User: Fold this.
Amino acid sequence: MASEEPSPPVPVPEPIITTPRFMIRPYHEIDIHPMAALLEKSDTARYMRNTFPDPYTLKDAQDWVALVTKPDPPQKAFGIFVPISDSSSPGGGEEVEYTLAGSIGLQPHTDVESKTWNLGYLMGEAYRGKGLMAEATTAFVRWALLERYTETELIRLEGGVFGGNTASIKVLLKAGFKFEGIRRKAVVKKGEVLDMHVFGCLREDLV
Assistant:
């Protein structure tokens, strides 16, 4: 009896956005170890929901990539990559090598809010303070609302920011979000009671 041939490797997805400063593409299994390295000693969990692992391990990265690379994943997640070097390709052109710097994605709400999707993002500590998160979020939001999804799928993007996270508030405002209010004392994170700042973005906010 002939043995079954192994399945061909899954190709790395094409980018959805490419600029001179960064590239955004869907996740692939090659991103597991870079994701773990990016977050294992990071303070990212400070402003994340408790479902975000703390500390972050290789197993967490494996589980995350497996979840978001399913055929119909519950979250539409993408890696943010920055160029680290240029090298000549065999064809004589310039080939850019990238490294994982952050993550961005969308999670649809349910029931009557099914056309409202939550925007989430993070940036590795080594890449903060360079304007990358704001630039990537701005490009990603415009891609989602103006290029990729129609109003039959997505009407509104929403972002929630814990009190004290001024950097994230600046990111959303630069990306075109409008401040809509504060859910007072809505968050308890490691025993600390915090407000939740709510932001929303519609297509008409971007044109």
